[in-house]
């Protein structure tokens, strides 16, 4: 199915109104248009979980990259005896496939093998028509296991950049209990809207001392890109790059209230010519 037709169908079944590609106004509509017409070869490297580390290290510094333990082409290549007691497995070609091992003695090897092998069969591009993923080589990456001050999870700081400028910071937390996300401006004022998941204005998230550095990195990585979300972890005041996303949740998350979908959409300046 051609990209345009597929994207229109996905959009309609999510929001129950027709996608306006000729004159998009909302954040979600403009992300669909960027999927179709903003295509650059380097985008593929930027979404590859392994190759993105090289890309980011060339712009910021390697010390801000989560250490890679090993890279594999298939699950049966993994020599678990060579991995530490705690580690993380990810697929390089998709989004969301993360398997955490906190103790090798209790690690469900068969379940992990099944999940990863199923994901390796999928070309992530065909799910939402995010073209940068189309040519990413499916591989498995083993990374160092890390947690933040909670001792149980990693809060990620997602920086929304519009026209090379950081404007909003989304913080997700309690993902394994009751997933919530707070959205802040650069002054750390919580914003009066939600994207898909509820926020909690009474849940205090301390301002990271290194926030200015995160914003600087996000700005440098988003150069010449109409819209980019850059994600970081902060562990013991240390910054670690997580991933870059061109289309926040494929542009199909709902805004509450909806007017903010238009507000964020107005901040995306689309390329003047189709590419």
Give an account of the 3D structure:
There is one protein chain. It is built from eight helices and eleven strands. It has a five-stranded antiparallel β-sheet with strand order 7-6-5-9-10. The protein has a domain at 66-146. 27% of the residues lie in helices and 23% in strands. The longest helix has 13 residues, at 3-15. The two termini are 20 Å apart. The chain has helices at residues 3-15, 27-37, 42-47, 51-59, 109-120, 125-128, 211-221, 259-265; strands at 68-72, 87-91, 98-101, 140-144, 156-162, 165-173, 180-185, 194-195, 227-235, 238-245, 255-256.
Helices and strands: which structural class?
alpha+beta
Distance between the amino and carboxyl termini: 20 Å
Count of strand segments: 11
Main sheet makeup: 5 strands, antiparallel
| Helix coverage percent | 25-40%
- Globally, the shape reads globular
In round numbers, the mean pLDDT is 94
What's the topology here?
Elements: H1 3-15, H2 27-37, H3 42-47, H4 51-59, E1 68-72, E2 87-91, E3 98-101, H5 109-120, H6 125-128, E4 140-144, E5 156-162, E6 165-173, E7 180-185, E8 194-195, H7 211-221, E9 227-235, E10 238-245, E11 255-256, H8 259-265
Antiparallel strand pairs: 1-4, 2-3, 2-4, 5-6, 5-9, 6-7, 8-11, 9-10
Helix pairs in contact: 2-8
């Amino acid at each position: 199915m051609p990209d345009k037709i597929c994207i229109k169908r996905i959009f309609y079944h999510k929001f129950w109104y027709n996608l306006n590609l000729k004159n998009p106004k909302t954040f979600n509509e403009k992300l669909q248009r960027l999927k179709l017409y903003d295509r650059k070869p380097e985008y593929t490297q930027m979404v590859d979980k392994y190759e993105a580390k090289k890309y980011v290290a060339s712009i910021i510094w390697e010390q801000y990259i989560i250490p890679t333990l090993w890279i594999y082409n298939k699950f049966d290549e993994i020599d678990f005896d060579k991995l530490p007691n705690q580690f993380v497995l990810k697929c390089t070609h998709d989004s969301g496939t993360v398997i955490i091992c906190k103790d090798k003695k209790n690690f469900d090897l068969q379940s992990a093998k099944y999940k990863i092998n199923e994901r390796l069969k999928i070309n992530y591009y065909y799910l939402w028509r995010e073209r940068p993923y189309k040519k990413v080589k499916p591989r498995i990456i083993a990374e160092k296991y890390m947690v933040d001050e909670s001792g149980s999870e990693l809060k990620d700081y997602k920086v929304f950049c519009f026209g090379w400028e950081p404007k909003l910071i989304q913080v997700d937390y309690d993902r394994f209990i009751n997933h919530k996300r707070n959205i802040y401006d650069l002054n750390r004022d919580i914003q009066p809207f939600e994207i898909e998941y509820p926020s909690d204005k009474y849940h205090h998230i301390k301002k990271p001392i290194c926030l200015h550095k995160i914003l600087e990195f996000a700005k440098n990585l988003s150069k010449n890109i109409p819209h980019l979300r850059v994600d970081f972890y902060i562990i013991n005041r240390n910054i670690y790059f997580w991933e870059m996303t061109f289309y926040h949740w494929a542009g199909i998350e709902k805004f509450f209230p909806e007017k903010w979908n238009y507000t964020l959409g107005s901040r995306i300046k689309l390329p003047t010519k189709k590419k």
